[in-house]
Write a structure and sequence with these properties.
The chain has 195 residues and is mainly α. 70% of the residues lie in helices and 0% in strands.
Amino acid sequence: MILDIEITFKEKLYECHKDIEKIMVSKSHLFPLDAIGNIMVNQSILNAEKLHLAELLEAIQRCVYFLDASSRKLTWPLTKEQLEAQKKDVALFEALAAINERFAKLQDALGAAMRHACILAGEPNDSFLKVLGFYEKAGVLESVALWQLCRTARNLAAHDYEIESLKVYLLALQAHPSFRGLTRLSSLPEVKKLA
């Protein structure tokens, strides 16, 4: 069971790395660069909205970078027994709190970017469920249910320090598409610039 969780976790981390690469390619198509690599800014409303989306994508990169740094402080996978044995370990729970906060920021940034991209693409965005449905159909999200599970689990972890809730949260976090590829993100030039 633990080996399966560890393998799944590593696979999800790798997939996140691939998602970040796709974001970088998308970003380069949205914004033309001048001869020295700066984004050419046009004052039109559309370009201003595209620039805002680029800023959201950069915020996602920062979130992933710092989430990766926090996750490296722990030995994965964490077990229920380990959490119970170390239930008063301040360093462990500070690291888990940092991971929860950073994952929450990542999920919020992803949500904002997804909604904004839907607006730019002219897709339905009057409810976030429609935004999630669009990205599920496009193959960006594995499933709306998984997104909602991770959202619920992260909210439980933010307000509840029961071992069982933390176990559910950690399993959901390891399975979440936006947590994929974190172990390889440090090698991306865009992420290295943030260090």
